[in-house]
Design brief:
The protein is 10% helix and 33% strand. By secondary structure, it is mainly β. Strands 3, 4, 5, 6, 9, 10, 11 and 12 form an 8-stranded mixed beta sheet that branches. A 5-stranded antiparallel beta sheet has the order 2-1-7-8-13, with no helix packed on it. The longest helix has 8 residues, at 11-18. It is globular.
Length: 247
Amino acid sequence: MCGRYVITTAPAAIRDLFRYPEWPDFPPRYNIAPSQPIMVVRLVEGGRHVALMRWGLLPAWVKDPASFALLFNARGETAAEKPAFRAAMKRRRCLIPADGFYEWQREGSRSRPFHIRQRSRGPFAFAGLWETWTGPNGEELDTAAIVTTHANATLKPIHHRMPVIVPPEAFDLWLDPNADAKLVQSLIAPAPDDLLEVFAVSSAVNRAANDGPALLVPGADAPPEEETPKPPRRKADAGDDGQGSLF
């Protein structure tokens, strides 16, 4: 699964990778958490465009957002079948820029944080889903979730799930609402085993308020149980467990 992530690459370099026309000026973030605004790239009138959305998908049919749990991950294997994600999986897929993410390994009663990034240290894209919720007074809220899949051999010793990483050559396929469903589903797969590197980091990442480059210093302590990040109010990722609870 994915409950915290990082985006530190300069805005111009992110723009070059995702090829959108806007020039967003966003600061580096080292500990993005569910319920915070995140940058997504979606297809609008045939072109890629940037939008800010809340991390935590809210289906259009929800009557009372205050009583609905936070859906920050969507289990890729079943997203096309689940009421919360079915419409978004068919028509509202997006890309979520990132430079890395965190995962927690259970060690008895404790959880040890690790940072995961590309060996190249370059930015990449999570597969995402988005929805627009409209309230009774016409208010609108754009929300998004990160799609997850089975962990690859690199991450499996830490956690059994991982976010889906979309390669640049498949950006158009993932974003296209008219693409063949089987081809789209084929993208929901673990990243190649040699794509990512993993290293332990400080337990300071457990607190969402901590946000700075020191969080990415390798070789940190295992956190005491009381410092393990608490999941935000949410529904489970269709059976997925793990941690959880911009700009």
